[in-house]
Design a protein that fits this description.
Number of strands: 2
Oligomer: single chain
Strand order of the largest sheet: 1-2
Helix content: 55-70%
Mean pLDDT: 92
Distance between the termini: 58 Å
Shape: elongated
Radius of gyration: 23 Å
Length: 122
Amino acid sequence: MRIGELAKLTGASVRSLRYYEKQGLLASSRTGSGYREYSPLAAEQVETIRFYLQLGLSTGEIKSFLHCVLKNKESFCREIVPVYRKKLSELETQIALLTSIKDNLEDRMRLFAAENPGILEE
């Protein structure tokens, strides 16, 4: 199937498909006239890539385990465990930072409301 067909089938843009290929996540062959030609399994591969991107993983991280996930089920891929651990750690750090910022803003709002009664009422 050609790139336009794959894009339509998966909902991924042609630009994204080219990017996945450039990053080594997706492979195509070329026709005699230079068009990209993808295997029938490419649609499943693109859906898998998009799933992991939605989890916040980078293309480099996905590349490190994609071959295993496509060959086996995710639960059988040891390569994915360190990637998940790293991502969870990053998320915990971000959550802690955002919680601190939220608490600071709430404290400032309380202080502002105490010094300016009625100003924050809607």
